[in-house]
């Protein structure tokens, strides 16, 4: 019997993420940003002067992605790069005054998106959803080697030790 992906939680999660990204993109476009750029601004608002590597780690993206985002935000006047005083190989990224002002618009867009996404859910359901999504995120962040439930293709081909079949003594 084929796996009915349309009834799976992970399919619903993908569909919700697509809808969220699309709606978020619409809100961000109105303030001159692309999805993801607002996160750079928010991370810098929390801790200004991060290196590109620190930004990549905080955002969970590859360094070339951060470089592209910072380059665009710098061209728009929202951030500036400055070579580190202590290590000339490092560039730190700082919010500009214009970037700090834009964060207020980002916050308004996020609040609006939150209201739209959570319409029809009471506080108890919202709290439960946050908790469940944190657990899903944690589960998916495990590396394959750390996952005790992970099975390789060969584990189940011959009824090996990780087989779902129950072994009975001969």
Topology:
Layout lengths: L8 H22 L6 H10 L3 E2 H8 L3 H13 L3 E5 L7 E5 L1 H21 L5 H19 L11 H5 L13
Antiparallel strand pairs: 1-3, 2-3
Helix pairs in contact: 1-5, 2-5, 3-4
Count of discrete alpha- or pi-helical segments spanning 4 or more residues = 7
The H-and-E topology, N to C, reads as HHEHHEEHHH
Shape: globular
| Beta-strand content bin | 5-15%
In spatial order, strands of the major sheet run 1-3-2
Number of strands: 3
Assign a percent range to the helix content.
55-70%
Q: Average pLDDT value?
A: 86
Structural summary, described in words:
By secondary structure, this protein is mainly alpha-helical. Helix content is 58%, strand content 7%. It has helices at 9-30, 37-46, 52-59, 63-75, 97-117, 123-141, 153-157, and strands at residues 50-51, 79-83, 91-95. The chain has a three-stranded antiparallel β-sheet. Helix 3 packs across helix 4 (63-75).
Tags for this model:
mainly alpha; 3-stranded antiparallel β-sheet; single chain; 170 residues; globular; 7 helices; disordered C terminus
């Amino acid at each position: 019997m084929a796996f009915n992906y349309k009834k799976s939680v992970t399919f619903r999660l993908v569909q919700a993420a697509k809808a969220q990204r699309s709606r978020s993109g619409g809100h961000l476009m109105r303030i001159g940003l692309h999805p993801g750029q607002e996160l750079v601004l928010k991370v810098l608002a929390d801790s200004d002067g991060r290196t590109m590597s620190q930004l990549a780690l905080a955002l969970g993206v590859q360094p070339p992605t951060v470089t592209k985002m910072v380059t665009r935000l710098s061209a728009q006047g929202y951030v500036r790069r400055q070579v580190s005083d202590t290590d000339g190989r490092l560039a730190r990224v700082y919010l500009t005054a214009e970037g700090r002002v834009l964060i207020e618009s980002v916050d308004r867009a996020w609040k609006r998106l939150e209201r739209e996404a959570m319409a029809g859910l009471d506080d108890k359901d919202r709290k439960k959803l946050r908790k469940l999504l944190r657990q899903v995120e944690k589960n998916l962040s495990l590396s394959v080697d750390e996952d005790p439930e992970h099975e390789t293709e060969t584990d189940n081909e011959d009824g090996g030790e990780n087989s779902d079949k129950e072994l009975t003594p001969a």
